Amino acid sequence: MAYVRKDVTTLTAAERRRFVRALLELKRRGEYDAFVRMHIDHYVTDGEGGLRTAHMTPSFLPWHRRFLLELENALRRIDPSVTVPYWDWTRDRSATGSPWTPDLLGGTGRSTDRRVTTGPFAYSTGAWTLRETITDEDFLTRDLGRSRDPIALPTAADVEGALKDPVYDVSPWNSTVTRGFRNRLEGWGTGSGPVAWRNHNRVHRWVGGAMVGGASVNDPVFWLHHAFVDLLWTRWQNRHREHRYLPDRPPLPGTSQYRRVVARHEKLKPWNMTPDQLEDMGSVYRYA
Predict the structure, then answer these.
(1) What are phi and psi of 203, to 5 degrees?
(2) CATH 1.10.1280.10 assigned to 3-287
(3) Is the pLDDT of residue 144 over 90?
(4) Which of 126, 207, 266, 278 would give a disulfide with 211, using CB separation of 3.0 to 4.6 Å?
(5) What is the Cα–Cα distance from 223 to 209, expressed in whole angstroms?
């Protein structure tokens, strides 16, 4: 039977405690850091050579769907009642409300060094030391809303702009495309700075700190954010049932994306699954 992923604002106090405890236990066992390292290793950009599977590529959505499932399965081995909640940042837009409460993720970082000092993932608890990073910091950092140069979270209208595009993705299948649902949701825009950060990307920038860059998994909000991104893909699939993941065939030899993106029926590294196999998860989980 499919289990349910809930809106984080609807979690009971007991559900919040169980979710936090499972995350902390996964961290204590050393398993959580493997997820951070996996994301760092697969954060390959347009400017780098080789295969892109996690970002700036059509497989952004199925890759993170499987990644989220791996984490959720690890949590459920600790506590079978736990599922990953989603954070709807089009509705819950406060830097002090859910999920930024002391009993869940804690709040923003202090002004001096952005260190998170509240909640169960604060460095002072001794339970959340960062070991896999791309900086020298071993403590969790945040800058909710970017205090020195504020930005706003994406709106429902921003999300609708992505959802209404009936085509999943278009050539050249990277961060430069201006059409297609995948990049409209992933959020690589034109220009530089805040105007280029849209939807998924803008949320990472709004949270700031550890959420900026390949080591963003160090902040547990990563999973709540990507659960909502996954929900948005599900909504797109339900709205555009005649459209599917693209490309359906690998780019041809001699083209710029040859062996750089994953087609629908190709294996999605590091797993032995294809995007095609990850399009329908209805038998595994559903969203409340």
Answers:
(1) -65, -45
(2) yes
(3) yes
(4) 207
(5) 16
